[in-house]
Design a protein that fits this description.
Elements lengths: L1 H12 L7 E5 L2 H13 L6 E5 L2 H4 L3 H4 L8 E6 L6 H10 L3 E10 L21 H19 L4 E6 L5 E6 L3
Parallel strand pairs: 1-2, 3-4
Antiparallel strand pairs: 4-6, 5-6
Amino acid sequence: MYLIAGRLWWYEGTKATQAEIITLELSPKMIATSRKAFQDYGVENRVKLIEGPADETRATLPTSSSASLNGEFDLIFVDANKDGYEGYVKTILDQKLLSPSGIILCDNVFARGLTIGADCAPWVNDHVRPYWLACGQDLDGFNTRLVQDERVDVVILPIFDGISQIRWRDS
């Protein structure tokens, strides 16, 4: 339900600009729940839901929306499978989907603290530890390579479970 609330918060936060919000979703349960919530809250005029795996649907983004999109986004929020972050951000940058003054925010980049090491999050219980440990390894590599990308400036914010903020580097 957090994901749906997040989309509604983006909607509320962009009322003045009437920004279009595009969300990618894979889970059939989340798709159905999202569609119902968007209809119940009357936000379908600016919230577009694209169904399918992000690594497939992201390639269609410039043509999936209204003609006013022109292939650029001012804000891109990435909160998906952690092993896909690097590919998602690479596609965004390579295809220039981010506007010149835009920002990419990647959520959960600390992976419950496990980007630092296996012993850094003793509170993570054993049944989810392998998942978050694998995420930590993927996200550590993602963040390390990202800060080396000369096209962008990156700030890793220690907010909640970590957010990488990415923007085009000034020329």
